[in-house]
Design goal:
The longest helix has 21 residues, at 201-221. The protein is elongated. The termini are far apart. The chain has two domains: 7-174, no CATH class; 183-271, no CATH class. It contains 14 helices and no strands. It is mostly helical. Helix 1 (11-27) runs antiparallel to helix 2.
């Protein structure tokens, strides 16, 4: 069943596109563009806003996985009910303001960013629509429930998406960043980006665990022959450890995130590349 929809009016898609834009800007070290994208997320998706409320309805369906069918059905029902309590005129105006700000502050190409779960977001958008026939509604809801029941640890290949989206993304994004980004670095960036909408709660929890893990790995690194037999390398490794130790008493800010990203890369070079 092929149903087209206006992705610029898909609240979750625009949010994920902005998140992708922030990630790209961080990796390209484009601070000005990153700050603009972050500003838009904070402005339009702040707690209590219409778009934030609408986004939570989407998220309840595409961020829950490995759940029982019964729980998935209940979540879907509540999400649909929640969308019906949203002021449609207010939502349309907020979406229009967001679209205009993206075009003005960044550029229309943001809407062509490749979002891996594009098809799922499009399906959810159709479910929230009141224009579906009962038959199509049941079919689409079954697809969403099936996705929610999947185990996120089971990696599957991405479903094909609109070729224009993929082509546009490929032409604008330097693929080397995504290719060489470590999984734990991706996790850190995801938590960092999400911190703009959840008061950094998830980021703080992640950093607490990750910094502890990295400190253990650095202690282990001191036993690696290439390091323990080199006084300078031992000294530098200890300095990195001390730097991580200092973060215990510091606030969460960008310099901490960057330092942890670099330490994650260092860990990979020490233990995976034997370098």
């Amino acid at each position: 069943m092929k149903i087209r929809h206006n992705k610029k009016r898909n609240t979750a898609f625009v949010f994920e596109s902005l998140i992708k834009e922030i990630t790209i800007s961080i990796l390209k070290e484009d601070k000005e563009r990153k700050d603009k994208a972050i500003s838009l997320v904070r402005k339009h998706f702040k707690a209590g806003s219409v778009l934030h409320q609408h986004l939570q309805c989407y998220r309840s369906l595409y961020e829950n996985q490995n759940l029982t069918k019964e729980i998935c059905e209940k979540i879907l029902k509540e999400a649909k009910l929640s969308t019906r309590t949203i002021d449609t005129e207010g939502l349309f105006k907020s979406q229009t303001d967001l679209i205009n700000d993206v075009n003005k502050e960044l550029e229309p190409s943001v809407f062509n960013n490749f979002v891996p779960n594009y098809k799922t977001l499009a399906t959810i958008d159709q479910i929230f629509s009141t224009k579906l026939s009962p038959k199509n509604a049941v079919i689409l809801e079954s697809q969403v429930i099936h996705n929610m029941m999947k185990n996120p640890n089971n990696k599957e290949s991405l479903d094909p998406v609109d070729s224009l989206v993929v082509t546009s993304f490929a032409s604008k994004f330097n693929s080397k960043y995504d290719e060489f980004l470590l999984e734990n670095q991706k996790d850190l960036l995801n938590h960092y980006i999400s911190s703009f909408t959840d008061n950094a709660l998830g980021l703080k929890m992640f950093l607490n665990d990750e910094i502890g893990r990295l400190k253990d790995r650095l202690q282990e690194a001191l036993t690696v022959d290439e390091i323990k037999n080199d006084a300078e390398m031992v000294q530098k490794t200890k300095k990195v450890f001390e730097k991580l130790q200092e973060f215990k008493n510091s606030g969460i800010h960008e310099s901490v995130v960057l330092a942890v990203l670099r330490t994650q890369q260092l860990e990979q070079e020490i233990f995976d590349n034997d370098n």
